[in-house]
Write a structure and sequence with these properties.
hydrolase, Aminopeptidase, about 260 residues, 3-stranded antiparallel sheet, 2 domains, AspA/AstE_fam, 5 helices, Succinylglutamate desuccinylase/aspartoacylase family protein, zinc, alpha/beta, AstE_AspA_cat, binds zinc ion, 9-stranded mixed sheet
């Protein structure tokens, strides 16, 4: 069948097992693939231990380094080499959001071709604001598949893999081939950045629901923060368990 041009990556974060479980479940069904696909468990050691990473957050280490002593920095390099020439789906999960959404650096031909076929609430363009993460270095659609450690996240991940493989002609799977319109948001700035030293902060907003000018969106150490301009919140799991990081985004259009 030749060299794979498609890849599915799981467990860049070891405490997000949904992608690995979904790949396992899918391969057990011995799907009839029309083109070769690479299935990659990115950080096996962290996955085995059930930790986000063993030394450092892999998704902040790209492009990595072949000779690095830090595990994740070397793994980031090896993963990028493995993905050269591939159109890639990478699976994640979060602490805060049940509804799957896609993350890309910028919407290009690959996101335009694939995202309308995925069961996702939204496509988020990071515009490099999250980086240096995988989306900044290779043609990849990342998907946040649901709440970390839940059965539902695994179910979502498996469906999204099938949709990706159907959209790319790997699986002839008309059951999942359903083209929908999906809104695109572009990150504008990080919220609470200056307050990152704070001990208590809470968001009062829902992902992708507009926050109007003057509306309160978070409380930090008892102080209420209000929007000075309309934005759409995109909340991300932080690397620390007690905090979330959030971004103000703009609605820029839709795909599909
Ligand atoms: Zn993740």
């Amino acid at each position: 069948m030749g060299d794979p041009e498609l890849a599915v990556v799981a467990a860049i974060h070891g405490d997000e097992p949904c992608g690995a479980h979904a790949i396992e479940a899918l391969l057990e069904e011995e799907p009839n693939v029309k083109r070769p696909v690479k299935f990659i468990i990115a950080n096996e050691r962290a996955l085995e231990r059930g930790v986000r990473y063993t030394e450092t957050d892999m998704n902040r280490e790209f492009p990595g380094n072949r000779d690095a002593e830090v595990d994740e920095r070397r793994l980031a390099y090896e993963l990028l080499m493995e993905l050269a020439g591939c159109t890639t789906l990478s699976l994640h999960s979060m602490r805060s959001e049940e509804r799957p959404f896609a993350i890309v650096n910028t919407v290009g031909p690959i996101a335009t071709a694939i995202c309308p076929y995925l069961s996702v609430e939204a496509v988020v363009e990071t515009a490099g604001l999250l980086g240096p993460s995988l989306v900044d270095y290779t043609p990849v659609v990342e998907v946040e598949c649901g709440i970390q450690g839940t059965e539902q996240a695994t179910i979502n991940a498996k469906r999204i893999i099938r949709e990706f493989l159907a959209a790319t002609g790997v699986l002839l799977d008309n059951d999942v081939l359903d083209r929908c319109s999906v809104p695109v948001y572009r990150l504008r700035e990080q919220l609470l950045k200056r307050e990152s030293e704070s001990t208590s902060c809470a968001f009062h907003v829902e992902n992708f629901e507009p926050v109007l000018d003057g509306k309160p969106y978070a409380t930090i150490d008892g102080r209420v923060l209000t929007a000075d301009k309309l934005f759409y919140p995109v909340l991300m799991s932080g690397s620390e368990y007690t905090k979330q990081s959030g971004y103000a985004a703009e609605l820029t259009g839709s795909l599909g």
